């Protein structure tokens, strides 16, 4: 049951999320990260993480890798570039998953990884940009220092320039979407296991959300995908059990 494994993922991550600084104290992007949506059918926006969500990559061979990607690196100056080998495994059913998602959602690939590295992998997954409408990288994340002095990159969904009630994210790290916990579907991390079938559970959830959103009473303004995700995972109140952070923020502001 995917929900049980997700709950375990949640428990493993819960302390890390609590170390994030308050959202109000983090740098904000001045312009939306995405251009204005041009899709006329008003698809919801689905943000997908790359590493350990869609693929597993390593600089050393690991059991189950299926491909080697050569990445040439240079410092941008006249020093000679050199190439490194990246061992890659695609999560089982990745292409079927992307096929389904791209039909029903505007897909934004959002990785905290380096752009050159990510593009070398995305070139293999989506060479003709069939699946990903937009790509965002480490430089689009919010750099934060946690209360344990760790340096992390967080994906600020508010900065996308999309309606948050029609935006969701699938990521193996709940910390990565730690400022929008009720917008996420946390997926267990993928490390190259050939028998992984987590996409099926996620597809069931996406399918249920799409069916719900197409009900007449849910059309347009009435629909907020965060309500559905809250009902399924309830992440925000598990991480911050006493008071939702928005409420806590208001209390602090009005005092
Ligand atoms: Mg990841």
TrEMBL record:
Gene3D superfamilies: HAD superfamily/HAD-like
Signal sequence bounds: none
Xref: SUPFAM superfamilies: HAD-like
Ranges of residues in domain FCP1 homology: 39-209
GO MF: phosphatase activity
Domain of life of the source: Eukaryota
Coiled-coil stretches noted in the UniProt entry, renumbered to this chain: none
Record-linked Pfam families: NIF (PF03031)
Record-given protein name: FCP1 homology domain-containing protein
């Amino acid at each position: 049951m995917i929900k049980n494994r997700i709950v375990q993922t949640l428990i493993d991550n819960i302390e890390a999320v609590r170390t994030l600084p308050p959202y109000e104290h983090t740098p904000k992007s001045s312009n939306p990260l995405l251009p204005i949506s041009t899709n006329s059918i008003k698809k919801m926006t689905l943000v997908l993480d790359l590493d350990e969500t869609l693929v597993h990559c390593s600089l050393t061979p690991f059991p189950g890798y299926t491909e080697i990607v050569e990445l040439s690196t240079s410092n941008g100056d006249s020093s000679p570039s050199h190439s490194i080998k990246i061992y890659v495994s695609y999560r089982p059913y990745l292409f079927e998953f992307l096929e389904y998602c791209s039909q029903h959602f505007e897909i934004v690939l959002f990785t905290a990884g380096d752009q050159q590295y990510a593009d070398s992998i995305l070139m293999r997954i989506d060479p003709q940009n069939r699946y990903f409408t937009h790509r965002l990288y480490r430089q689009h994340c919010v750099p934060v220092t946690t209360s344990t002095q760790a340096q992390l990159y967080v994906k600020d969904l508010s900065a996308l320039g999309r309606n948050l009630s029609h935006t969701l994210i699938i990521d193996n790290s709940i910390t990565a979407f730690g400022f929008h916990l009720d917008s996420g579907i946390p997926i267990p991390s993928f490390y190259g296991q050939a028998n992984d079938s987590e996409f099926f559970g996620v597809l069931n959830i996406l399918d249920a959300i799409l069916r719900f959103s197409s009900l007449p009473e849910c059309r347009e303004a009435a629909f907020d995908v965060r309500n559905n995700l809250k009902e399924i995972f309830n992440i925000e109140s598990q991480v911050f059990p006493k008071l939702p952070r928005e409420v806590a923020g208001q209390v602090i502001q009005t005092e």
